[in-house]
Amino acid sequence: MTRHPKKNYMMMKGSSINCSTTFDSIPNELISEVLSRVAASSLTDMFNAKLSCKILNEIAEEKQVYQRVSLDKFPIVPWKPLNEKQQAFLNKCQQSENPDFMYRQAVLDYFNKTDLRSACQHLEKAVKLGHIGSQYLTCIILLLCGDDELIKASIKILSDFRKSKFTKRILKLCRKKLIRILRQMWVKNYLLIQPPTFCSTPNQHQWKSQWSEDDDNIKCEACIADREIRIISSTYNYYL
Ligand SMILES: [Zn+2]
């Protein structure tokens, strides 16, 4: 992207911020990277940055920034129609291939519209972009409707998440995000309402509770998958 000559920004209208001096020595790529990180952690902070200076406002419109913006604060099913600005913002996220946008579409596709094909298309793109929540969601969907091989692979991936404190924390965050979104919508997919069971001998394995999120005693990989599905299955509003 070509930034306008910095002299145009010497003094902002009604503001004493001298953007030219502030950003003169910083390459656009670095500003864009910083803004992308801000956008990834807080949508509000990104908009505040946009309002603070014309240069930031311009760079924040780049595809790279929109690709990483977090949509966590945006309700998945708005209670009232979106205004023009909100709709334009979401459209830009979609055009920029924001993986969080694709993840949310996949959740709606699968759990509300029961459209597996569309969910998989969105997830495939988001996973390729490294969206970890989409990898987790792919495992959950495959556990619910995949063939034996895909179920086996998903059980293994979920089990691997528990191998270190770091990946366990990621698993927990992914689960929390999915549950938060499911609670905002009507789930119409009966597979989550009556989830399958993967372990053939659960009575022989240790389970504190199907809702316990920190049960480290479970060693059986199939039981880990069973518990994961049941935690999610028990925490949403369903509608058939
Ligand atoms: Zn088991």
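^ zinc ion complex. The chain has two domains: 17-68, 84-238. DSSP finds 13 helices and two strands in the chain.
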